[in-house]
Specification:
With about 500 residues, the chain is α/β, with parallel strands linked by helices. The chain folds into 2 domains: about 180 residues, 3-Layer(aba) Sandwich (Leucine Aminopeptidase, subunit E, domain 1), CATH 3.40.220; about 260 residues, Zn peptidases (Aminopeptidase). It has 14 helices and 20 strands. The longest helix is centred in the middle third of the chain and has 26 residues. The structure holds ligand BES, manganese (II) ion (MN) and zinc ion. The site of manganese (II) ion has 4 residues, from loops.
Length: about 500
C-alpha cells in the first residue's frame, strides 16, 4: 500500500473518496469550507437540521463528480472530542477502510486534522491511520484463482493520501508514517506465514522463510536441524516431532549484537506447523485451524525482521522451535518418559500438550545468551481461548517489572494482556510419579498449569514472561482491523516493548 503525506496547500488531482471526521456537537470546520465549499455548505445545513451531529457511527455522504477533492465525500461522526483516543481512532479507520473497499475506492484521501486534536497529536494520528489502513486492507488470497478484483475478500485502497495543514510538523509526521508502515508490514508478514496451511509450511519450510525474512538486514540466522537437536539432547522437540515424516528445527534469529551492553532480550515462539494432537488426537471439529499453532514462532520471526528494518538499538534473539504433531506408526506415546534439554524428565500424559515440551527446550537453551529478559508467545491452551476469546491474551511471568512492561506495551498497541496468577500450588498436579514432571495436570486451571510447567525450564534468576495467544492469534469473525484468520497479534506489542527497552 502506498501512503502519501500531502500538504493541504499543494495542488492535487481528485481522489475516489475523501474522509473527514467531525466530533460530536462541533461545527463543520473552516478547513472543509476552504477545500470543498459546496459540501461544507450542505453539511452545515444537515447539522442545523439535526440530520447529522457527529455521534460515533453517524456519517453523511455525498457524491458529485464536480467536487475538487474527490467524487465522493464522507463526513464521519467521531463522538466526543474528549473521549476520542487512539483506540477509537484505530476503530474508526478500520471501519472506513471497509467502506472504501465496498465502494472500490482505489485512491482514498483523509483529512488528518479532522481526526486529531484533543488526545491525539498530528504525528501520532498519522501513525495510527497509516498502521490501521495497512492492517485493515489485508487479505490472504494467494490461493484464490480468480483475479483480485473478483474476490470477495480482496480489499483496501491502492493509495492513501493523508492531507495535513501545519507545515512545521511534516518531518515528524512522515517519520511516524514510515515507522507505522514497517510495523504493519511486520504484522502482515506474521499473518501471511500463519495463514499458510500445514501442507505448505512444515518446520524446514518455516526455517527457510525465517532465513529469507532476516536476509540482508544484519540478522544472523542459525537453524539447528535434527542432528544438532540430537547432539544437544533436546528431547522435547525431538519427542513431539517423532510422528512426523519431516524433520524438526530450532530456528534462531539474532539481531543487534553490538547492543549487548543494553541487555539481551530473547523472544521464544511456539512453532507447531500443524497440531493434530498426536496419539491423544483432537476431535475433527476445528482441527483445520491448528495450522495456526505456529503463530508464536511466526510472530517472533516477523518481529525480528521489523526490528531490523527499524534498526532499533537492541540485542534481540528469536528462538522458534518448529515441529509437526502427528500420529504415525512410530509416534510419541502417552506414558513415554522423555529427557529434556535441561536434564529434567517428563512423562507425556497427553501428546496434545506438546507446545510446552518444545518451548521447554527452547527456553532452557536461552541460558546460552544470558538474557536480561525472556518473552515467550504460544498458542498454548484452548482454555485461554475460551477465557478471553480474541480480546486479550493471558500473561504470566516470574518478574513483576517485566510483566508490567509487557502489559503496558500491549495497552499502547491495543493488544491487551490479562494477568493470571502463578501460585506454586498450580505446579502440584504437574509433579511426576516416575518422572520429574508430567506434561499435563488435571482438567482445571489449564492455562496456568501450562505456564507453571514452562517456568520450570526458564534459566535460573532470569526475568520471564509468557503470553498465551491461543485466543488472540486467530479471529473467527472478521474484525475492522483483520479479516477472518491469523491476526498477527504480538508483533506490534513486541516492537513497542523493544523500542522502550534499555
Ligand atoms: N495448540 C493447542 C492449544 C489450542 C487449542 C490453541 C485451541 C488454539 C486453539 C495445544 O497444543 C493443546 O492442544 N493444548 C491442550 C492441552 C491439554 C491437553 C493439557 C488443550 O488446551 O486442550
Ligand atoms: Mn496440542
Ligand atoms: Zn498445540
Amino acid at each position: 500500500m502506498q501512503i502519501d503525506l500531502i500538504s493541504i496547500s499543494r495542488r492535487r488531482k481528485p481522489a475516489d473518496l475523501f474522509f473527514i471526521g467531525l466530533f460530536e456537537g462541533e461545527k463543520s470546520s473552516k478547513l472543509l469550507t476552504g477545500l470543498e465549499p459546496n459540501f461544507a455548505n450542505s453539511a452545515e445545513i444537515a447539522i442545523k437540521n439535526k440530520r447529522f451531529s457527529g455521534k460515533k457511527g453517524e456519517s453523511l455522504g455525498s457524491f458529485n463528480p464536480e467536487y475538487r477533492e474527490a467524487s465522493e465525500i464522507l463526513l464521519v461522526g467521531l463522538g466526543s472530542r474528549a473521549k476520542f483516543d487512539s483506540a477509537a481512532l484505530r476503530d474508526v479507520i478500520g471501519k472506513l477502510i471497509q467502506v472504501a473497499a465496498s465502494k472500490k475506492g482505489k485512491r482514498v484521501r483523509i483529512l488528518l486534522d479532522s481526526f486529531t486534536g484533543g488526545k491525539i497529536q498530528a504525528a501520532q494520528g498519522a501513525e495510527t491511520i497509516a498502521e490501521m489502513t495497512s492492517l485493515a486492507s489485508y487479505s490472504f488470497d494467494k490461493y484464490k484463482t480468480k483475479k483480485k478484483e473478483e474476490n470477495d475478500n480482496a480489499k483496501g485502497p491502492e493509495v492513501l493520501e493523508i492531507l495535513f495543514t501545519r507545515s512545521g510538523d511534516e518531518k515528524n509526521i512522515q517519520k511516524n508514517i514510515d515507522f507505522a508502515q514497517i510495523v504493519a508490514s511486520g504484522t502482515l508478514t506474521a499473518r501471511n506465514l500463519i495463514n499458510e496451511p500445514g501442507n505448505v509450511i512444515n518446520p524446514a519450510k518455516l526455517a527457510e522463510e525465517a532465513r529469507r525474512i532476516g536476509r540482508g538486514k544484519g540478522v544472523r540466522c542459525t537453524i539447528l536441524g535434527p542432528a544438532d537437536l540430537k547432539r544437544l539432547k533436546m528431547g522435547g522437540i525431538l519427542g513431539v516431532n517423532q510422528g512426523s515424516k519431516t524433520p524438526p528445527a530450532l530456528i534462531i534469529l539474532e539481531y543487534g549484537a553490538s547492543h549487548k551492553k543494553g541487555g539481551t532480550v530473547c523472544l521464544v515462539g511456539k512453532g507447531v506447523t500443524f497440531d493434530s494432537g498426536g496419539i491423544s488426537i483432537k476431535p475433527a471439529n476445528d482441527m483445520e485451524k491448528m495450522k495456526y499453532d505456529k503463530a508464536g514462532a511466526c510472530t517472533v520471526i516477523a518481529t525480528i525482521g521489523a526490528v531490523a528494518d527499524l534498526k532499533l538499538p537492541v540485542h534481540v534473539i528469536a528462538l522458534a522451535p518448529a515441529v509437526e504433531n502427528l500420529p504415525s506408526e512410530n509416534p510419541q506415546r502417552p506414558g513415554d518418559i522423555i529427557r529434556m534439554y535441561s536434564g529434567k524428565t517428563v512423562e507425556v500424559i497427553n501428546t496434545d500438550a506438546e507446545g510446552r515440551l518444545i518451548l521447554a527446550d527452547a527456553l532452557a537453551y536461552t541460558a546460552k545468551y544470558k538474557p536480561k529478559a525472556i518473552i515467550d508467545l504460544a498458542t498454548l491452551t484452548g482454555m485461554c481461548a475460551y477465557t478471553f476469546g480474541d480480546k486479550a491474551c493471558g500473561i504470566m511471568g516470574n518478574d513483576r517489572s517485566l510483566v508490567e512492561k509487557v502489559k503496558k506495551a500491549g495497552e499502547q498497541t491495543g493488544e491487551r494482556c490479562w494477568e493470571l496468577p502463578m501460585w506454586d500450588e498450580y505446579l502440584e498436579t504437574m509433579k511426576g510419579h516416575h518422572s520429574d514432571l508430567l506434561n499435563a495436570g488435571g482438567k482445571h486451571g489449564g492455562t496456568i498449569t501450562a505456564a507453571k510447567f514452562l517456568e520450570e525450564f526458564v534459566p535460573k534468576k532470569t526475568a520471564w514472561v509468557h503470553l498465551d495467544i491461543a485466543g488472540t492469534a486467530w479471529c473467527d469473525t472478521p474484525r475492522s482491523d483483520c479479516p477472518k484468520g491469523a491476526t498477527g497479534f504480538g508483533v506490534r506489542l513486541l516492537i513497542n516493548f523493544l523500542q522502550n527497552w534499555r
